[in-house]
Amino acid sequence: MTMAQVREPAATIDLQQITEQFKAGLSGPKLREAELFAEIVIGRLPTEDLEALNAQTWAGLCGNLLRFFRDRPRGQPQVRVYNPAVEHDGYDCPHTVVEIINDDMPFLVDTVSMAVGQHGGLVYLTLHPVVPVARDPGGHVLSFGGSEKGRESVIHFQIERQAEPEVLQELQRSILKSLTDVKACVSDFHPMRDSLLRIANELSTRELPHDESYVKECVAYLLWIADNHFTFLGARDYTTDDSGDEPVLRAVQGSGMGILRTDESTLPPRPLSTLAARELKEGELPDLVILSRTNARSTVHRPGYMDYIGVLSFDENGRPNGEQRFLGLYTSNAYTYHIHDIPLVRAKTEQVLARSGLSRSGHGGKALVHVLETLPRDELFQATADELHDTAMGIFHLQERQRTRLFIRRDRYGRFLSCLVFVPRDRMTQDNRQRIEALLKRVFQGERVDSQVQVGESMLARLHLVIRPKSLEVAEYDIRELETKIAQIVRNWQDELRDILIQRHGDAQGLKLANRFGRALPGGYIEEVTPQIAAQDVEFAAALKDPGDIKLTLYRPRRRADAGLRFKLFKFGGTIALSDALPMLENMGFRAISEHPYAMQLSSLTIWIQDFDIEPLDGVEVDLDSVREPFQQAFEQVWRGRAESDPLNRLILAARMDWRQVTVLRGYLRCLLQTGITFSQAYMERTLCAHPLIARLLVELFEARFDPDRESDNKASLDSLRKRLQRDLDALMDDQQRQATPDLPAEVGNLRSSPREKQIQGINGVLRTLLEQVASIDEDRILRAFRQICMATLRTNYFQVEDGRAKDYVAYKLDSKLVPNLPKPLPYREIFVYSPRVEGVHLRGGPVARGGLRWSDRREDFRTEVLGLMKAQVVKNTVIVPVGAKGGFVVKCPPPAGDREAMMAEGVACYRTFINGLLDVTDNLVDGHVVPPARVVRHDQDDNYLVVAADKGTATFSDIANAISAAHGFWMGDGFASGGSKGYDHKKMGITARGAWESVKRHFRANGKDCQTEAFTCVGVGDMSGDVFGNGML
Predict the structure, then answer these.
(1) Which of 80, 553, 849, 980 sits at a 20 to 30 Å CA gap from 509?
(2) Would you call 512 a catalytic residue per the annotation?
């Protein structure tokens, strides 16, 4: 019994429980008969198989089968196919039942299984006991058991349910036909074998036109076949008939045996010329023994086309005049026999080995023998020595290389094509197998395809296809083209990736990238990403060199304008936390819909890929080619801390700016906040983003004023810049602006080739026109403030470079009287320094002014603090030249509270940035001549005086400032910052508030006054909150 489906058992049962069910309706001899029959049918089933059905169902099944078994005509098979029902059959069953009673003989179960399988039915239960039984002449059962009784085979199949009566009847007819064939084959097996042996003995005495050694080999083959290596299914003799226009091969009446014993199995006479192989050369003899396969499939024992053995007879002129034909199937023994021991086959393999030139004892010779041994045995039987040589050597030369090869052998008699397909082992999937079969079936116009797969330890898997074409004439084919198509079928994702990388980088580098990075990509990634995108990702991953590296790409998965946008990040060690990445994306104008992280494991290193599905926040259409590079650069700079993450970054998308252009506006915005402007930072950010064209023109105005290369670009470069600017401005215009100023893009673009002052005037004029169109008064004031502060800027270090890249900070030197809404008093000049880490301001009361720099903790209004100090300094210095100056900076990203060392380190770093910013926009003196700073466009006169001093929080920083001064080559040298190791120490020299008081006391004593006990009136000049001299007043 075999089960194809496991059912829930009702309970643990045994044979006794089943036979107990019989007692309800039977007694006496009938009961004993039923018990004995059930014991024979299911008595040897293991408990777990019995538990597949309950006891009542088993009893009903056995009782119904017994009734079917009781009467059977002698020698006749009895078959029924039905759907059991309790009212008719005593038990119910969800499946269709096939039951057969037949004389016991070989091949019954195999043959019935074949017949059922050809109708597409799954088999759920199989019982096939052999029942000893005695019957009367009428076929009625007399008794069961006993070795002297006849043996009958009982077969019970439960198959997939078939509801249509026509289907049940057709299956029954098919099974009856197969059983008839089985009986014919079994009955005639020995006569067919004896006939073959008789022919083998006669061959050596016949007058044959063949070589004697070949005839001996044929005889040996026939004897080998008869020695349990062939299952005989049919045999028939044929003779030539010359009575017609062409000699034909006609069946000898009454010579048929097995499945060929009936006249119905006789085919029409066949032209004698078809006995010769198609490739037979002129004058060449046909084979004495023909080995091939028929066009008919076996209905007995084993599915597949039957093997064909034909032994020709020849007349005195050496022409074929008859054939003795045997049909059957090679036994399993024949398929495992050593090839050097199989007659005819061994002769062909010897020829292959001899032609190869390989030493039999060498590695190559042994490998070739292995190839021959593992070839489909049918190929060895049916192929000629030449065909076998070409196929075997082709396989030999594969040498375990993972490539696709196809070997095609056409049957010499036109019945079929044998195709051997070799593909990399891991590519032999069920889907690929079916696609290869479909390809070759279509090319060769096949009617039917039989296939067999061999997957072993080799790196290659083999698919053997036998294709039966619809006609004997096969269309021409190109085997290399077919190999290419098969290779395309079995190509997997990794193959596609490898080929793309090789195409882009050449064989050596492409394979290196594919093996190192492509193989490291996880399964989830491969399911989601195309090889074309993956090739780009591999290139990005390979470009990562240092642990701090990051690579980014903004792209569309498909080349369609309406396709979604994706943003990928590549970095070592781990992903960017979503809590960091999502706000950064949102501040740049995108919403993240989903995120897919993938880990690429490279030995000890892991590269993480984060793939974000994003969309614009405002739903605008994104010109990917225009924004890709600026967006990627901006995200990286924000991640590295060189740019801040705030809503102004939306201008990258909205105004087609890059991250440094946004930094210009951000620096101005922070400067305006310190001037006491009445608008919040968020409101000013929203205003700039709501007017992208004006924001872009503000940056254009800034660049026109300060870009040192603005007037030096060549004509080709100017044309390119002009066209891009016009294209960007046109894209930024809204309907109102387009209607009011349709020529704006061309007007501004054409200014690009004008002198600097004309560009400035032209852009200012366009800005004034656009500002008149701003509906909101507050927004108008904000935008005008940005234009005014840009025009108030005298110098900037924005265009300076350091180590080949732009600086991390921006310094703006301002003419304070031109800055809108500044509180009094107005400094002579001020320098505002902006960076993501620090902001600071230095205010001067006049061209020659001195004052300290303090580390402020008033982030929101440090300029107010510094302005107050400068005012006091100016008053104090009215009697001591120079006039007053003050500066201060704030640390924007302090480390966690409590870490004093980290805090001091961050403060020093910010102080360095601040000092560098001041010096970047200050003239130098070299040999008495004023030298302007590099790449700074000046809108003021020479201004080389800059002196600083210590103040709150910076008392020990003078050496740092002087070192920066020296690095700049500044003319003040170590006089740039007072104090330090080469100056004087306020505390050590008593120049402190306490020192001032001691000086006062000494002054009073010299004048005969005791200021400790006597009242007095005094006047002091200074700031009581921080100035040393003022503090002395306390």
Answers:
(1) 553
(2) no
- Among candidate residues 886, 952, 987, 1001, the one labeled active-site is 886
pLDDT at 761 over 50: yes
**Could you write out the DSSP letters of every residue in 578-639?**
HHHHHHHHHHTTEEEEEEEEEEEEETTEEEEEEEEEEEETT-PPP-HHHHHHHHHHHHHHHH
The DSSP secondary structure of 885-930, one letter per residue, reads EEEEEEESSPPPTT-HHHHHHHHHHHHHHHHHHHHHTS-EEETTEE
* 259-289 as b/e: b if 16+ CB within 10 A: bbbeeebeeebeebeebbbeeeeeeebbbbb
Token representation of residue 946: 């800059």
Q: Give the pLDDT mean for 264-282.
A: 60
pLDDT reported for residue 743: 94
Q: Which residues of 84-99 are buried (b: 16+ CB within 10 A; e: fewer)?
A: beeeebbbebebbbbb
Contacts of 518 (CB under 8 A, 6+ apart): 494, 497, 498, 501, 534, 538
CB 650 within 8 A of CB 586: no
- Distance between first and last Cα of the chain: 112
Beta-sheet pairing, 565-572 with 550-555 = antiparallel
Q: Determine which of 278-282, 324-328, 714-718, 817-821 has the lowest per-residue pLDDT on average.
A: 278-282
Q: Are 853 and 842 in contact (CB under 8 A)?
A: yes
Q: Determine the Cα–Cα distance for residues 259 and 298; give it in Å rounded to an integer.
A: 10
Q: Which residue has the tokens 């980088």?
A: 505
Task: Identify the weakest region by mean pLDDT among 735-749, 961-975, 1011-1025.
Answer: 1011-1025
Give me 394's structure tokens. 């082709």
Point out which residues pair with 831 in neighbouring strands.
813, 842
Side-chain half-sphere of 447: how many Cα atoms within 13 Å? 10
Please answer whether residues 594 and 613 qualify as being in contact, where contact means their C-beta atoms are separated by less than 8 angstroms.
yes
Cα separation, 310 vs 316, whole angstroms: 20
Handedness of CA 907, 908, 909, 914 (dihedral sign): positive
**Residue whose pair of structure tokens reads 């119910």 in the numeric block:** 92
Give the pLDDT confidence score for residue 323 in this predicted structure.
92
Neighbour count for residue 1028 (Cβ, 10 Å): 17
For residue 4, give the nearest of 117, 153, 129, 118 by alpha carbon: 117
| pLDDT digit string, tens, across residues 438-459 | 999 999 999 999 999 999 888 8
Render the burial of 379-394: b for 16+ CB within 10 Å, e for the rest.
Answer: bbbbbeeebbbbbbee
Q: Which residues contact 12 (CB under 8 A, 6 or more apart)?
A: 47, 51
Burial of 769 (0-12, 13-18, 19+ CB in 10 A): middle
pTM, to two decimals: 0.66
Cα distances from 222 to residues 324, 351, 773, 1018, in angstroms, run 12, 21, 106, 140
Q: Is the pLDDT of residue 753 over 70?
A: yes
Would you say residue 558 has pLDDT above 80? Answer: no
pLDDT for residue 984: 59
* Cα–Cα distance list, 162 to 83, 116, 171, 294 (Å): 8, 12, 10, 32
Token pair belonging to 793: 């800027």
- What is d(CA 103, CA 1006) in angstroms, rounded to the nearest whole number? 147
State how far the Cα of 36 lies from the Cα of 141, in Å rounded to an integer: 13
User: CB within 8 A of 593, min separation 6: which ones?
Assistant: 564, 612, 613, 614, 615
Tokens of 735: 């309907």
**Which residues does residue 2 pair with via DSSP β-bridges, in sequence order?**
126
